[in-house]
Task: structure prediction
Amino acid sequence: MKEKKVKEKEEKEEKGSWVTYRPEIKIVDCSVRDGGLMNDHKFEDNFVKKVYDTCVSAGVDYMELGYKADKKIFSPAQYGKWKFCDETDIRKVIGENKTSLKLCAMADAERTNYHTDILPKSKSVLDCIRVATYISQIPTAIDMIKDAHDKGYETTLNLMAISVVQDRELGDALEALAKTPVGTIYIVDSFGALYSEQIRDLTLKYLKAIEGTGKQVGIHAHNNQQLAYANTIEAIVSGANRVDATINGIGRGAGNCALELIIGFLKNPKFQIRPVLERVQETFLPLRHQIEWGYSIPYMVTGQLNLHPRSAIKMRASDKPDDYVSFYDQMIEEE
Amino acid sequence: MKEKKVKEKEEKEEKGSWVTYRPEIKIVDCSVRDGGLMNDHKFEDNFVKKVYDTCVSAGVDYMELGYKADKKIFSPAQYGKWKFCDETDIRKVIGENKTSLKLCAMADAERTNYHTDILPKSKSVLDCIRVATYISQIPTAIDMIKDAHDKGYETTLNLMAISVVQDRELGDALEALAKTPVGTIYIVDSFGALYSEQIRDLTLKYLKAIEGTGKQVGIHAHNNQQLAYANTIEAIVSGANRVDATINGIGRGAGNCALELIIGFLKNPKFQIRPVLERVQETFLPLRHQIEWGYSIPYMVTGQLNLHPRSAIKMRASDKPDDYVSFYDQMIEEE
Result:
């Protein structure tokens, strides 16, 4: 049924008849969470409030504020408040959140004291817990999903670094995840390494694994090869209904799928691009003088080589941020 | 046969087995021609020579130098030499071109004195004439194709602004073009407005029109919506074999598909990325301080609205280059 619907939509789109939309498609703004990876989550309350107001005005469905990191592993002296998303800190900015925008926090497998730090839903303004996991941490992640679900939250499972996960392991993981109460299972292209055919293949594989469960497939793409937006569209056309984006593509390294681009693509009239453009102009453009994000050659190189961007991030922060050839030689050598 | 081959390749790619390549795929570097739109084609000889050397080292198949513009329409006092590509000016930089790199010039329909200004191939180091045309100029363009072919050149027909061409007109044009001696017919997304499904649909339509003629389909994409590279890949996967790119994506407005990205994608071992990275680092990065190109919000807006980028170019050159919201309001109003 779902596939038929997608196929029909695809056929319509190919004919240029862009007059329908899938109301099931929901946007998650990750500006504060993914952007926070660049400044140790030290965004000021005022900035978070502006992003929140923009999401509400733009008709975005979810906003992710940061992590629920374990303070025994990550020191609050070193990291900003959005690394921990304490309930009092959230409410200080957002109050009781009497809007239709749902709020999320990310919980990393093995780096979250989830039994204690994730409150029962009745005591939190958060609506959704997004469990981020590597393939090897799936058993822990599944326990975290159950915990959050039992506490009353919507949940997503964000399977990171998918471009280095082997097919058989992925099959096993999806089979296990399909039996959990998780609401959405995400394709996370952490290295920005995937091409559209691979995104399509993965989306269809995920969809098949969750068939009949009522779960959704999500996409979180990175822009190392200028494909974050293109791959997000590809996932949508293939049937993904949960879409991560960030204002002006903010995010670690090459950044993410830009919210303004994806809103331009989706035809649901509830989404408004103008508030996003205003936020880019007034807040994100000045921010670019303080922190760097977006496509550049070193991130392209790690993306093409299917490597974590950490070497590129280090190189961009060094005293030779534009020595592309030496960086390339070094990366090839390391391979 | 072609489609079967593409399908097989696609299937292989989906499985991650990137061990084969299509030797038919040829790259055209348009850095000097498309980049010249930003400085009235006033690049210095030294710059052109560097791009030429890079193309040779990188294994690029064709390099486009500029236009063969009519000097009665465009004054040589106002435009640089690469607007006209006089034989003596080309030879001054490139000599007899004793390399495997083929040289191209673009000839605009109705703006080229082609009978006179395009020399017989025996008197020119140029190898290929690329005729650029709007749909309404097709009869002139066909005469130009015949003229260049009779003079001994390879030819391409670059059908511009394809995102506003009606289906029936396109069908008629392709039918007429299939009967000409043109070697390659291009999809040119001048406005950077097309999504991948539309690129796929167009590529298949072009391929069908030229079936059995031995002609090729080409793709020239713009980056208004960060889709230049993604759409170029989509065209390749759908069967296009001629691919336009520019170093570091240089080009008018949002620019083009970056050569370094497409070389990273293609698996033909004759293509080398390292010389391109070196050129970006040493020449194009400093050039960015003099002329602006690449993705920015105004170009995104015109791309989303399927409009020529001229308003965005004007706005970026104004004293309020970052007033995105006013620009958006104005563009919506004009619609």
